[in-house]
Amino acid sequence: MNTSDAEKEWFRRINNGQPTNTEHKTSAAKQKEEKPSKKQSAKGNGFKDIAGMNELKEFVTESFINVLKNRECAEAYGIRPPAMLFYGPAGCGKTFFAEKMAEEVGINFIKIVPDDLACTWVHGTQQKIGEVFRNAEKKAPTLLFFDEFDAMVPKRSGDEANQHYDSEVNEFLCMLNSASERGIFVLAATNHPERIDKAVLRTGRIDEIVYIDMPDKEARRSLFALALSTLPTEEDIDTALLAELTEGYNCSDISYIVKSAARKMFNATIKEGDTDYRRISQSLLETIISSKSPSVSGKDLREYERVRSEFSPKDKGCRHRTIGFR
Description:
Strand order of the largest sheet: 2-3-4-1-5
Shape: globular
Number of helices: 13
Distance between the termini: 57 Å
CATH superfamily of the largest domain: P-loop containing nucleotide triphosphate hydrolases
Largest sheet: 5 strands, parallel
Strand content: 5-15%
Radius of gyration: 24 Å
Number of strands: 5
C-alpha cells in the first residue's frame, strides 16, 4: 500500500521527528546502491597490452606475480607480495598498469575511487572502508586498487574540526596492516604522495613506492604505432618523427591526438558519402600535434622531480621508464 506525503509527515511527527519505517527502508536501499563499485577481472592480455615499462614489469613480476604463481615456494621463504604505491605525473598509465597487473596473474580486481567512500552520515566513510576490505577478503586473492589515494588518506591535522577525516585515516591504517596475510594485495596510485599521511607509507602498510615517469621517445613511438594499428591510415606514417614532435606529452595526450585525427577522417568520410574510408595521414597528425600543448607543464614536471627526490631519493638520476598501451 502506498503511503502519501501527508501520512509520512504525520508518522514523522508522532515519532518525534524520526524517519518512518518506509524512509528507513528507502535509506537502506540507497546505502546499498552506494556501495563502492567493483570490477573483477581475471581475463585479458595482461602485460602484452603494455608498451615498454620493462623495469616495472620485471619488478612486479619478481615481487608480485611470481609469488602468487608459486605460493608453496614463497611460503617456504616467508614472503608475500608487497603493497605498492605508484606516483608521478598524470596520464602516464598508473591505473591501466594496475588493471593489466591483475590480468597477468589472473586474480580478482577491485578499483576504488574517492567517491566510492564518500558518505554524508557520521562515521559512514569509516564503515565503507571496512566493507571494501571485507569484500576484498571474501573474494581473495584480490588486487585492491585505490585511485587518487591522497584524497582518501590525507595528512591528519589533529584539529577537532577535522576529526572525522582523522578517524577515516585511522581506519585505513588498521585495514592496511598486513592485508596480504588476508589475501588482499593493495596497490594505490596518486599524483601527490606528499599529501598522504606519513603513517600510511611505512612498510607493512605500503612497502614499495614507485615513480612512474613520462613516456620517453621510444615509448611514444610505440604508443602511436599501437593507437594507429587498427585505424585506416596512409602507408607513410612515420611514428619515429611523431615521437620526436611529442616530447613532453604523456600517454593520454598521444591517445587524444590519434582520436582527434580519427574523428576528422570519420566526418570527412560521411560528409562525402564515400564507401572507402578516408585515411589518416602524417600531415594531419602533425597539424593536430602543432595545435595541442602537453597537458603536463614544464613547471609541473619540475615539481614532480622535486617530489621524486623526496620519496625516491635512491632512484638513479632522472631515469625514464618506457610506458604505453601495448
